[in-house]
Amino acid sequence: MVPAAGIGARMGAGLPKQYLPLNGRTVLEHSLWRLAACPGIAGIAVALAAQDAHWPQLALPPDVAVHTTTGGAQRCHSVLNGLHALAGLAQDEEWVLVHDAARPCVRVADIRNLMTYLADHPVGGLLGVPVNDTVKRADSAATIIETVDRHGLWRALTPQMFRYAALRCALQDSIKAGVTVTDEASAMEWAGHAPRLVEGQGDNIKITRPEDLPLAAYFLQQQQSE
Ligand code: CTP
Ligand code: MG
Predict the structure, then answer these.
(1) 212 lines ligand 1 (CB under 6 A)
(2) Ligand 2 centre and the CA of 36: distance in Å?
(3) Given a cut of 90, is residue 60 above it in pLDDT?
């Protein structure tokens, strides 16, 4: 499931960031082709903004069924809509991977690792990277309150992989309860599950601000020459 219904406000480009050109393809095309290159992906559901005029121009991966649905107000609503679009296609116990459209540099090897490590896990989990920097907590005036022990701290990436029905329920219930969840793992944690982190590569960045685009272009080039 690929949420691609955001407007990219922080990017501030003329069009949503998932449609910006990156090394000869759009950001979203990179993301979709990488998912499609993973054995075991039966289909992809993409959540799009209601007035999206760019989607029909994309070159879609040929070997995987791609379904589209309309996104919602926040990422979690878009993901939930995408999960609903898979009703009848995915079984309750089957795995669903959720991957940000804005992460075009995800490595196929990392997605495969995630799927392999968690194949027998009762809950599922996500790609993550341990935090390297010293971490500070500050007040609203940027004055440090404390240095946070970074031991055991990770940055959460995508894909995040959970069982279809459990994820659908966790998202539905957390939204209903008014809890803000910014990733699938938070919804699962809120529902009382304990997801597992699988270490991925730090070049799996989420394109967020203008300076991220040249960085992503560089990472894609580097990956090609590996
Ligand atoms: N997304 C979505 N539906 C929303 C908001 C976000 O499907 N209502 C998607 C985005 O398209 C992106 C992913 O969720 O692929 C991660 O969100 P983010 O990086 O925050 O993208 P935007 O919301 O588009 O960016 P911004 O917050 O800067 O506006
Ligand atoms: Mg956003």
Answers:
(1) no
(2) 24
(3) yes
Cα dihedral: 79, 37, 24, 26 (round 10): -10
In this predicted structure, what is the pLDDT of residue 180?
A: 87
pTM of the complete model: 0.97
Gap from CA of 75 to ligand 2 centroid (Å) = 7
* CA–centroid distance, residue 120 to ligand 2 (Å): 32
216 ligand 1 Cβ < 6 A: no
CA-CA distance, 151 to 141, in Å (whole number)? Answer: 26
pLDDT at 149 over 90: yes
Domains in the chain, CATH or no CATH each: 2-225 (3.90.550.10)
Segment 9-36 shows an average pLDDT of 97
